Fold:
Amino acid sequence: MTYNSSIQALRQLMLSNDKDIIKISPKDYSLSNGISYCCVGLKSNNGSDYLVQATGQEARDLYTEAILMTRNTNDSN
Structure:
């Protein structure tokens, strides 16, 4: 499936309740060339692993979205 953005991909993956965010790269992380980078790791109950990545402004937005999703998940438990 093709997504327009990393945030759209993350949201689609999180629609299923069997996935948990297990890793988010540090805030303001950047590659050796100075470009902002974010990766979000997910694991499903069936053992499948997913990795959503972004660079530039989209990386900063992905980080924010993943943090909000993590907080919302933790608040509902």
In short: The first helix runs from residue 6 to 14. The mean pLDDT is 91.
